[in-house]
Every structure is written in structure tokens, then in C-alpha cells.
């Protein structure tokens, strides 16, 4: 438990990923029905896939070329204005990228900064590497907890003895609401409490559905 009695949840995201977006909205639903406290962290699909670009489909490789800009802006915002801005900024970015279909364009990032009440000047960091070391450090923190053969999102929750247990996912569409969100959360804590539990997986047969967001 955290100092305020809530269950701590650490959540690593790349704003480019639609599946991470779905999971993040689920976590916010859980906040309404369970006593949890989410801390947001950046991870990077560009960093995750470094050195293996030739193995990826061409369309995905092209998308990764746009992956650095948004995470750079997110980390710059957190470094300059405090980690508490990451949640609202992620909501603003994801709403524009995914719900509104604007994609990770400079215009969408600029709009998200305005939506989150952050300075417009942060857009400059899309093309600047001033905080790339911090991007990599945040990414490494999440990956070190969960392992190498995963993507985004990564969540870390308390295990049986209170130690952090990290997972990739849950990957879900559409975002569960209300008691459905609570049941998935309770199940996440349940599997985290089982020593030696590592994975449940099945082939995805649906695309991300943003219709209820």
C-alpha cells in the first residue's frame, strides 16, 4: 500500500500504441471503483525495436520513425513541470492520436500540450534529443521489471508479499467499464499473487475499439 492507503500501480506507455491507450483507459476506469493510485511513466517503441527494424513489417517500421517525437515531448514536460503532468498529457495525446484519428503529428502534439495546459514551447523537443537519456532510462526501468520479450503497455502491481510484479498488458478491447473493469483488475492482482505465474496469451482477433472512450 502507498502512504495514502491506496494500491500503487506503475504504468509505462508509448502514446503511439493504440493497445496501451486502451489499457490506460481501463486503469482510469479502475480508479473509479477500486482504491488505486497510478504513476505514469514513458517507454519507447523506438527504443524497444532498436536493432531489429529489418525484422519488422514495412508499415510498422514507418510508424516507428514518428515514435521519438511524442515521447521526447512527454519526458521534457515531466522533467520541466513534474511527473504529475504525464497523466493529463497522455490523456490529451491519446485522445488526439487515437480517438480523434489525428495521429502523432506535430499539430496533434501541439494541440495536446494546449489541452493539458502545458507550454507550447515544449513542441520543440519533438526534434531535439535533450532528454533522450531520460527517455531511455524510463524505458529501461519498465523493461527491467518485466523482461525483454514484451511491448507496451507495462504495468507493475503489488505481488503476494507486496513486491512489484510487472506484466505486459492486459491487452483488451473495448475498454472495460464499471464492474467489468473492476473484475479485470481483481484478476490482475490475483495472478500477480501467484508465485511463478508468467503468462496468459491468445491471438488477437479484433482491432482496438475506441467507440466507448
UniProtKB/TrEMBL annotation:
Signal sequence segment: none
Stretches that traverse the bilayer: none
Top-level taxon in the UniProt lineage: Bacteria
SUPFAM superfamilies per record: Thioredoxin-like
InterPro entries: Rv2466c-like, Thioredoxin-like_sf
Pfam family, one: Rv2466c-like
Protein's name in the database: DsbA family protein
Organism of origin: Streptomyces amakusaensis
